[in-house]
Amino acid sequence: MAEKFDPAEHQHVRYNPLKGDWVLVSAHRMKRPWSGQEEKPPEEDIPRHDPKNPLCPRATRANGKVNPDYDSTFLFDNDFPALQPDAPDPGPSEHPLLQAASARGKCQVMCFHPWTDITLPLMSLAEIRTVIDRWAEITTDLGTNHRWVQVFENKGAVNGCSNPHPHCQVWASNFMPNEATAEDNNQKEYFSKHQSPMLVDYYNLEKEKRVRIVVENEDWLVVVPYWAVWPYETLVLPRRHVLRLPDLTSSERDALADITKRLLCKYDNLFEVSFPYSMGWHGAPTGDLTDAENSHWQLHAHYYPPLLRSATVKKFMVGFEMLAQAQRDLTAEQAAEKLRNLPELHYKIKRQQED
Ligand code: H2U
Ligand code: ZN
User: Could you tell me if residue 94 is inside a domain?
Assistant: First the structure.
């Protein structure tokens, strides 16, 4: 008789309906020993205020401008923008193999808090709510004349973040980036087949199955998606069908602050370090596409953390992943269970309470 399939033991591929690609799941690989590269754990003794850090209140930035003495969030134009509003057009392509197109846009940076030694999970719910309101405002503002407004946070040195001060970036572009285009096409196709938005159906499915849930409240659900690539990747989904961040109601924003704090405390508690990740929001396109048919879209956030085994061993996306297909070493269900079972009280607060 053939052996019964066990996803935690038997390798298989899973389909990512948002991106339209596949991931190889080979959970038994976690058993192999590791003698490869180890990263430095994140720095613990960051000063609260560093006058030499260009993101701090009153500090001087690279362009010579002095930051205000801000006491909440602080938004400024990136001094080294990858997208500028006025780049000249490359003109018609001379050959189908040498295609270029115009790229215009705007890049901003938003500090979450005046303190350098704080991160989102350690901020109060009111402070996180302010960050959410700013994200929505920036989306509205830059969305008036850009097709795509990408709000993202790059956290942790292991993840390429250049500055420990809590902040996010916003890159707004006159074109749809690749990830946005793939999600747009795939959600559109699903909607035309099923007459229902993909991620609204997915929310309901995960609420019912209950095997990949990390945290939930009345308005939000966080899961390790069935098709996750990064070891502890999560997907943040609203209960209601919502196209973009500015469409969230006040109570949905409060609930988002709650779910964000709970998720990020769990992340930090996993290896008892400030957990590195890249996160970002995806919603319906904006600019001249704002009034297009967008009902196939559902607002969501992705968290892509690179750590795998410990605070110092990350997942390398090299070799087979680069040349063939993404691969993961534990199942989405195993990762969700691990995160779900972690306490929601931040380890630093717990330590303070014990002292
Ligand atoms: P990251 O650590 O996520 O790269 O964010 C820091 C951003 O802040 C980065 O994009 C900008 C950098 O260009 N920055 C300024 O705009 N001015 C400065 O004086 C320092 C950093
Ligand atoms: Zn997405």
Answer: no
Which CATH number covers residue 205?
Answer: 3.30.428.10
**What is the spatial distance between Cα 184 and Cα 146, in angstroms, rounded to a whole number?**
16
The confidence score (pLDDT) of residue 162 equals 77
Q: Which residues are catalytic?
A: 167
Are β-strands 105-111 and 167-173 bridged in parallel, bridged antiparallel, or unpaired?
antiparallel
Q: Is 9 annotated as a binding residue?
A: no
Distances (CA, A) of 32 to 129, 237, 296: 42, 34, 42
Would you say residue 132 lies in a domain?
no
Task: Round to whole Å and give the CA distance between 27 and 10.
Answer: 7
Three-state DSSP at 83 gives: coil
Element spanning 333, H or E: helix 332-340
Q: Is residue 329 in a domain?
A: yes
Segment-wise mean pLDDT, segments of 10 residues, the chain, 355 residues: 87 97 88 74 85 96 96 97 94 94 97 97 98 98 98 92 93 98 98 98 98 98 98 98 98 98 98 96 98 98 95 90 95 97 97 91
Question: Quick check: is 213 in a domain?
Answer: yes
What pLDDT score was predicted for residue 1? Answer: 61
pLDDT of residue 27: 85
Q: According to the annotation, is 52 in a ligand binding site?
A: no
Ligand at minimal distance from the CA of 152 is 1
- How far does the centroid of ligand 1 lie from the alpha carbon of residue 78, in Å? 6
Which pLDDT value is given to residue 36? 76
Instruction: Tell me how far apart the alpha carbons of residues 222 and 216 are, in angstroms, rounded to a whole number.
Output: 6
C-alpha triplet 269, 22, 234: angle, nearest 5°: 20
Domain range enclosing 286: 194-345
Q: Give ligand 1 pocket residues (Cβ under 6 A).
A: 54, 61-62, 78-80, 109, 154, 161-163, 169
Q: Which residue's CA is the closest to the ligand 1 atom numbered 21?
A: 54
Whole-number pLDDT of residue 158 = 87
Please count the CA atoms within 13 angstroms of the CA of 344 that sit on its side-chain side: 10
Total domains in the fold of the chain: 1
C-beta atoms surrounding 304 within 10 Å? 18
**Position 81: which residue type?**
P
> What pLDDT is stored for residue 139 in this prediction?
98
